[in-house]
Design goal:
The complex is a heterodimer of chains A (about 500) and B (about 130). By secondary structure, chain A is of the alpha/beta class. In chain A, the strands form five sheets. In chain A, strands 2-1-3-4-5-6 form a six-stranded parallel sheet, with helices on both faces. The N and C termini of chain A lie close together (about 5 Å). The radius of gyration of chain B is 16 Å and the shape is globular. Chain B has a four-stranded antiparallel sheet with strand order 3-4-5-10. Chain B has a four-stranded antiparallel sheet with strand order 7-8-6-9. A two-stranded antiparallel ribbon of chain B has the order 1-2. Chain B has about 130 residues and is of the alpha+beta class. The longest helix of chain B is centred in the first third of the chain and has 17 residues. The chains are: A alpha/beta (about 500), B alpha+beta (about 130). The interface between A and B is medium-sized, with 29 and 24 residues.
Chain lengths: ~500, ~130
């Protein structure tokens, strides 16, 4: 790992490669508060993008969304030709692509062209797949593996429609697509699948959290990078889902009329900024908006940064990228009680993952990074067959001793309690040998109540960099009286690489 | 009279749909509930009895995962037998095929029938999911 002095020295070198006034020729760039602190807007959370020679050259990103406006004057220069429409009828690729167009602008709006904004990776090559217009299982699987020999990053600012605390399993075909993309994409280095963490919770009324990234099969696995959202001051956005698989977060909008993410909007009078808006003040130039938000806006910021990292070091695997983003993240919302230090001395928080993404540090570290060793795994199955105490102040604890040493990258926990009739009663935690805790499920309202933990896979990235060897403890607490059940068994699968520690 | 018959048949169809089932991508038999109709009369389904549970729609396709690689003759056989049209192999896997069905309203029924074949590992409708 690069030492602190090395990072500072390289930072100066990289800064010297660019124009220190890089917002000058893009008139709306001064409003892009999320890029860095140069903006006049009152805020503190930024992705720390500073002038650099790296702009995403030679890197290709797929925008897996509702399409992209192919004629947008600030995007068309960076759009490759291999777009794909999942609609059986011609046309409509650009016209109904308001979400994808706003995502694309954050990543790759052209810089220095005298109009609009600048993207985080203004020289990256984009291709658009409009799968959200017809999101069948086979189409989603196709979109995640399309142009597999070319795509380096797959930006996915979408997810399951949830918000009701029901776990939604990943379709086997989509899971296969992610496996193929990470094992065969980029000549075996793996496509970087960036996903928005999800907007399925609401903190505004002090109600308990509803959804959690661990209830979505799309973002609780080791193949994807779930990105959460923080407000302009680095605090959790009210809708952003928490959980143990969050990698890093990025700035976004936090309220209906609050400071939004400035980006491109479909050209003409449609989109987020139509010319007849009555209630919200937006730009006169209807090709742009300052109203974009959600974790949909946070994910493309990280995708853009990964493009810079891959230009700086094309040998990075998707596992390397995750590791670097975690190691270099900023500790936002410093006084939040949810921060802890894991066994590898990384700050981590169920609300923020490893913290707010830091473009400058990530690129600097990427340049000097030595690739992680081959991925290894450890499997352990634990039979329990014991009742879970029903809200009596105690919990069911099950432990397992792991004898092998790996540097942990990700952990899967398969939880099998199929006879418990209300999963919302259960708080499930796992504690590593280094005493780091991951909350896998919180007590929550389950809107429908038909789901059972039938070998449900939870994930956690919170143990990143720790040694796998030692005692792992699973703690299950039923916090509501009434529905009861037992823990039949659970399994632990640890993914990582051989020692020594990095 | 014709109109009354049509309404009656539609009613019967909807009632039957509430009792229908499908096999999911893991091979589990699950109930499916018709929920409502879109403006262009496409049926919206629920995969749970709860009225507000996640909704899905049928596409024009079924996905068949064969026990072994689906060679040309096998594909033709299924095309003829179920009036399907082969669309593509999925994820470069010769075992997994996507077929177009003649009418999306019967794709659950067709997928269920195909599941009864010994050469078939999985057969399920290519559901359109709601994502955001």
């Amino acid at each position: 790992m690069l030492g602190r002095n090395g990072i500072i020295l390289l930072s100066f070198l990289l800064a010297g490669c660019g124009n220190s006034n890089f917002f000058k020729e893009d008139p709306l760039a001064k409003d892009q508060w999320y890029l860095n602190k140069d903006s006049d807007i009152n805020h503190s959370a930024t992705i720390n993008l500073l002038p650099s020679a790296f702009k995403g050259r030679g890197v290709t990103i797929s925008i897996v969304d509702d399409g992209v406006d192919l004629n947008h004057p600030d995007l068309k220069e960076n759009l490759a030709q291999k777009h794909h429409s999942y609609l059986s009828v011609e046309g409509g690729f650009s016209a109904f692509a308001q979400h994808g167009t706003s995502v694309a602008g954050i990543i790759a709006a052209e810089e220095g062209n005298g109009i609009g904004i600048r993207g985080i990776a203004p020289k990256v090559s984009m291709m658009a797949f409009n799968v959200l217009r017809l999101a069948s299982t086979s189409n989603l699987a196709d979109a995640l593996t399309r142009e597999i020999d070319v795509v380096d990053i797959s930006n996915n600012s979408w997810g399951d429609v949830n918000g009701w605390g029901e776990p939604l399993r990943l379709k086997s075909l989509v899971e296969k697509a992610l496996e193929i993309g990470t094992s065969e994409g980029r000549n075996g280095k793996g496509i970087n699948y960036v996903f928005s963490a999800g907007n399925g919770t609401d903190d505004r009324n002090n109600t308990p959290p509803i959804d959690n990234v661990n209830y979505s099969g799309l973002v609780n696995n080791r193949f994807t990078m779930p990105i959460c959202a923080v407000d302009p001051f680095g605090k959790k956005a009210f809708y952003s889902e928490s959980g143990a698989t969050l990698l890093v977060c990025a700035p976004s909008k936090n309220s209906y009329a609050g400071l939004g993410v400035v980006t491109t909007d479909i050209s003409g009078n449609d989109g987020y900024n139509p010319d007849n808006q009555e209630y919200i003040t937006d730009y006169e130039d209807v090709n742009y908006t300052r109203q974009f938000g959600g974790t949909s806006a946070a994910a493309p910021m990280v995708s853009g940064i990964i493009a810079l990292m891959l230009e700086a070091n094309p040998t990075l695997s998707y596992r390397d990228v995750k590791y670097i983003l975690a190691l270099t993240a900023q500790k936002n919302d410093e006084n939040d009680e949810g921060w802890s230090i894991n066994g590898a001395q990384l700050h981590v928080n169920h609300k923020y993952g490893f913290g707010l993404v830091d473009a400058k540090k990530a690129v600097v570290m990427a340049k000097e990074w030595k690739n992680l060793e081959e991925e290894l795994s450890i499997d352990v199955n634990i039979s329990v067959k014991k009742p879970i105490p029903d809200n009596d102040g105690t919990c069911l604890e099950s432990t397992v001793e792991v004898n092998e040493s790996l540097t942990v990258e990700f952990v899967d926990i398969f939880f099998n309690a199929p006879d418990h009739e209300n999963i919302g009663d259960l708080e499930i935690r796992i504690i590593s040998p280094s005493a780091t805790e991951s909350i896998l499920a919180q007590t929550h309202q389950q809107r429908f109540g038909f789901f059972r933990y039938n070998n449900w896979r939870f994930g956690s990235i919170r143990f990143l960099g720790e040694n796998s060897k030692g005692k792992w403890r699973l703690l299950v607490t039923d916090k509501q009286t009434g529905k009861q059940g037992s823990l039949h068994d659970w399994a632990l699968k640890i993914y990582g690489h051989a020692k020594p520690d990095r | 009279m014709m109109k009354t018959c049509f309404v009656f048949l539609l009613f019967i169809t909807m009632i039957n749909a509430d009792d229908s089932y499908f096999y999911d991508d893991k091979g589990y038999k699950k109930k499916v509930y018709s929920d409502s109709l879109t403006r262009d009369n496409k049926v919206i389904y629920r995969l749970s009895s709860e009225p507000k549970s996640p909704k899905v729609m049928l596409s024009d396709f079924v996905i068949i995962e064969f026990e072994a690689a689906a060679h040309h003759e096998l594909i033709e056989k299924y095309e003829r037998k179920y009036n399907l049209k082969f669309e593509t192999h999925l994820l470069g896997n010769q075992n997994i095929c996507k077929f177009r069905v003649p009418n999306k309203n019967i794709s659950i029924e067709i997928a269920n029938k195909i599941m009864e074949n010994e050469a078939v590992h999985r057969s399920y409708p290519d559901w359109i999911m709601l994502v955001r």
